[in-house]
Amino acid sequence: xxxxxxxxxxxxxxxxxxxxxxxxxxxxxxxxxxxxxxxxxxxxxxxxxxxxxxxxxxxxxxxxxxxxxxxxxxxxxxxxxxxxxxxxxxxxxxxxxxxxxxxxxxxxxxxxxxxxxxxxxxxxxxxxxxxxxxxxxxxxxxxxxxxxxxxxxxxxxxxxxxxxxxxxxxxxxxxxxxxxxxxxxxxxxxxxxxxxxxxxxxxxxxxxxxxxxxxxxxxxxxxxxxxxxxxxxxx
Length: 235
Description:
- The protein is mainly α.
- It has a single domain (about 5-220), classed as Rossmann fold, CATH 3.40.50.
- About 45% of the residues lie in helices and about 5% in strands.
- α9 (about 190-205) crosses α10 (about 215-220).
- The longest helix has 18 residues, at about 190-205.
- The two termini are about 20 Å apart.
- The model has no long low-confidence stretch (mean pLDDT about 90).
- One of its GO terms (molecular function) is catalytic activity.
- This is Phosphoadenosine phosphosulphate reductase domain-containing protein.
């Protein structure tokens, strides 16, 4: 069994801390896979167009291709951690030597089961679950409005870097991480976004007082959009 993490070098500090915790607790080695060229190179190749749900070039260039190069032509089973209560397939390689297997789906394990397994193993949940429902780059375009606001609070320097990516277009075109508004415009609505989120969380808590915070947070954030998370980024 070999463990890997596709490292874009645009990760949250909490993600790296969680990987270190997994390695220490389970006594395993994790291969960190990276594309030969970084995000800025591929951003230039794609004409400055920021990745989006309709154009996920970052997933292809910085995750899928490095993984397939790592596996090579060896026969391999790819264990994919998609739960039974998720309506997505995750990454399925087009290479015939990589066979996908879904152990959680096959056993009917849902989110509550995974949280229990993590707690019982001593690994626990990543710290970003206080305000974010998935891993991925700090400027991931799948973030909801509330997650962007909280990124500004938790890691202002990373939020500011994401703003610079929006603004850095010499040809005059405008690209934004969230549809319809820039990050700075979104941040101007910070109080409104947080208030709406807190009302939704209170509603969830009232409906099911015993529901774990991580599950309630994901349910509330899912109300903001219908987009599926990045197929290869969800940790």
